[in-house]
């Protein structure tokens, strides 16, 4: 897939990393927005949560269905700085009236996107990456 944003061409490794990073940000934003429903005076922001969940699904789908996903995701699992950057967005956060866990939302979206493909190598590479991401987050 060749995607052009602001005259910058994304394909292959750059597209996969772009999708994964933005999916992590969308998972964090969805969970933060959902957390407003906690507490004695909840604010219901279902529309905003759905917006961020839609972005999350789009970014994971974009990353997983790229031809370079398997090779890129294996390299990304070894990249300590990338894993730390993703971990900062996905680490569970304790709020006043509950805990949010963006990693669970991210893992579910990545797993669903991988399950929608017929390629077993994508599924196994995704599970391996999510395992390494869990280890990186537990070290934070």
Model description:
With 140 residues, the protein is mainly alpha-helical. Helices cover 69% and strands 9% of the residues. The chain contains six helices and four strands, in the order E-E-H-H-H-H-E-E-H-H. Strands 1-2 form a two-stranded antiparallel sheet. Strands 3-4 form a two-stranded antiparallel sheet. A hairpin with a 2-residue loop joins strand 3 (93-95) and strand 4. Helix 3 runs parallel beside helix 6 (120-138), helix 4 (80-90) crosses helix 6 and helix 5 packs antiparallel against helix 6. It is globular, with a radius of gyration of 15 Å.
Across the major sheet, the strand order is: 1-2
Quickly give the structural class: mainly alpha
Distance between the termini: 34 Å
Helix content: 55-70%
Main beta sheet, described? 2 strands, antiparallel
Report the oligomer: single chain
Mean pLDDT: 87
Write down the overall geometry: globular
Number of helices: 6
Spatial extent as radius of gyration: 15 Å
Low-confidence stretches: none
What letter string, H or E per element, gives the SSE order? EEHHHHEEHH
Can you give keywords for this protein?
140 residues; mainly alpha; two-stranded antiparallel sheet; 6 helices
Give the structure's gist in a few sentences.
This protein has six helices and four strands; from the N terminus they run E-E-H-H-H-H-E-E-H-H. With 140 residues, the protein is mostly helical.
């Amino acid at each position: 897939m060749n995607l052009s944003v602001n005259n910058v061409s994304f394909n292959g490794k750059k597209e996969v990393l772009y999708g994964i990073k933005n999916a992590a940000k969308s998972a964090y934003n969805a969970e933060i927005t959902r957390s407003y429903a906690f507490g004695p005076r909840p604010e219901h922001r279902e529309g905003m949560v759905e917006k961020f969940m839609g972005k999350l699904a789009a970014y994971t789908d974009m990353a997983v269905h790229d031809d370079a996903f398997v090779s890129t995701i294996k390299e990304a699992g070894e990249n300590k700085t990338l894993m730390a950057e993703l971990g900062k967005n996905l680490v569970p956060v304790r709020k006043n009236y509950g805990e949010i866990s963006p990693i669970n939302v991210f893992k579910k979206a990545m797993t669903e996107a991988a399950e929608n493909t017929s390629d077993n190598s994508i599924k196994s590479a995704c599970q391996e990456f999510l395992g390494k991401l869990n280890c990186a987050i537990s070290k934070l």
